[in-house]
Write a structure and sequence with these properties.
Radius of gyration of chain A: 19 Å
Shape of chain B: globular
Helix content of chain B: 25-40%
CATH superfamily of chain A: Thiamin diphosphate (ThDP)-binding fold, Pyr/PP domains
Strand order of the largest sheet of chain A: 1-2-3-7-6
CATH superfamily of the largest domain in chain B: Thiamin diphosphate (ThDP)-binding fold, Pyr/PP domains
Order of helices and strands of chain B: EHEHEHEHHHEHEHEEEEHEEHEHEHH
Largest interface: A-B, 46 and 43 residues
CATH topology of the largest domain in chain B: Rossmann fold
Shape of chain A: globular
Largest sheet of chain B: 7 strands, mixed
Strand content of chain A: 5-15%
Oligomer: heterodimer
Number of strands of chain B: 14
Structural class of chain B: alpha/beta
Strand order of the largest sheet of chain B: 3-2-4-5-7-6-12
CATH architecture of the largest domain in chain B: 3-Layer(aba) Sandwich
CATH class of the largest domain in chain B: Alpha Beta
Order of helices and strands of chain A: HHEHHHEHEEEEHEHHH
Amino acid sequence: MNVNKHNTLDNLSDEKLVELYKKMLLIRKCEEHLSSATKEGAFPGAVHLYIGQEAIAVSMCDHLTEDDWISSTHRGHGHFIAKGGDVNTMMAEIYGKATGICNGKGGSMHVADFKKGIMGANGVVGGGMGLAIGAALAASMDKKNKVSVVFFGDGAANQGVLMEAMNISSLWKLPLIFVCENNQYSEFTHTSEVTSGKIVDRAKPFGIPTLEVDGNNFIEMWQASAQAVLRARNNQGPTFIEAHTYRQRGHVEFEYSFLSRTYRDQDEVNKWLANDKDPLLRFEQYLFDNSIIDNQKTEALNNEIDSVVKESVSFAVNSPLPDLSSAFNNMIA
Amino acid sequence: MSRMRMMPAINSALIEEMDRDKKVILYGEDAGISLLGQTTGLQERFGKDRVRDTPICENIMTGMAVGAAAAGYRPICHLLYGNFIYTGFDSIANQAAKLKYMTGGQITLPIVYMAVIGGGRSAAAQHSDTPYPALMNLGGIKVVVPSSARSAKGLLKAAIRDDNPVFYLTAGSSGKPEEVPDDDFILPIGKAEILREGNDITIVAIGPMVLKAVEASLALEKIGIHAEVIDLLSLLPIDEETIINSVKKTGRLVIVDEARDVCSAASHIAAIAADKAFNSLKSPVKRVTVDNLAIPYSPILEDQVIPNVENIVNTVRELI
């Protein structure tokens, strides 16, 4: 299957495009805050940042409603925000506070909001696969044209559960979209060193239509998402998208505090930070080229998002710690 | 009342609950044809949408139960043999047991995972395990082990209505026919039953071992030892009160369990007795269990490792 290039963003209003840009910017700035806050020891756990992959979550989730489901990865803040999760409660969760979306019980790796169809980030690589299949099964039985999206990485593509998921979703024509975000690194190892063949080709024997896209190209990713979600809503079964991208940050922030050596060249990283590679900068350029934003507007948007992030951090910092007794509830209904 | 064996009793509970609640769905390997009889006729009655044959893919099966439950259904995931819990263990341990807690109680997960456990059928090591010790250590789930047609029906109906993941584990053979209530018969999860009363010793038995414990108590009675036999029925939550009250009365405890002994239900019960009935104990607590072995194939070997009536009688006689 090819990306339908005719399905351009032309039908989206300027306001809508700016909204999408703002969402990418919000993810970027939240993650940048978490990066610096990690170094300051401002919150207890570790974070895996989504910087450089924002176009994928934002473009896919633009085609979803709160009734649709997503399952996510350990790099899950971007999916949470893109699907409409509240930034304040996400930040408070990462800070381990009572006001966190999971009351401080999940942290960065488990931010979830089921009311908004966010089944959560996941600490197990490939762990979201079964959840998304189950939600897709529920959606297909509900017959209300809801869809389910599983975001996973190139690392998870090597988990056996992916084969189980592709087989059963194709067999049952589930309204499911596989979104493999190939960010080139499986933890600290380049994916080429641990992966045979092309990931996207793995879906083909199951009769699942595939789309291979530049995941840092917002427009291309938005178009692919539109096609895949439409197929799912029309009961045509699953679609497999492999979105090529790049993990600009480490597997986990502050990783050189424990790694004994580097595992990639800074030149390689710098290449992906450039204007022609970084997804946020590329989308920004698109908006500039189409006279949707200018320097003044960009500055205003940046200020606006900065204040949203600042407010979320303030909310997190000023929130109370969880009540000690809460450690003992929520295990059994 | 109807006279039936365990598999038909399970079947009747499934039919009643699926009739009652359209959100109850069932899937598993060979659910349509039903290898052991639990799901016979369900696909014909409820359709292939609600009763699904799955591929052989336990990791997705156990995981999609969590997703479907979070999305409003009450899935019954039929895993056939207890050993296949191991192949589906990631989603059981990392999702089903934890998702509610780690998301701050945002959801309930009304799931039933069912499988048959135990040996005695020359099914060998990979079809004869009793894997509930591993499940009991996960937190976030319940575990029930019915011992008879009646308890199989009552506990399955309770498990389906429970808002937590419940492991429903029964013997693989259908056992003896017995009277099973026809009406909406529910046995509460977490409540043991005293099958025979006695003052000399308490025998706590689990699942397939219950019948053997009863037989042992009959043999003991002939030599003047009156054993109290407790059918535990639920491992999590466990009915500590019934166990402790009985031990306080008899002063002696033997636990009969088909799981391997290390970190088992039996050792947990022994710990409860040591903790909460220590001053009543007149002799050491003994466990009649399986050694740290796989279950062998040849019947003569299998009989050697699985607890039998003679083992139970001899263990009791050592104490009295």
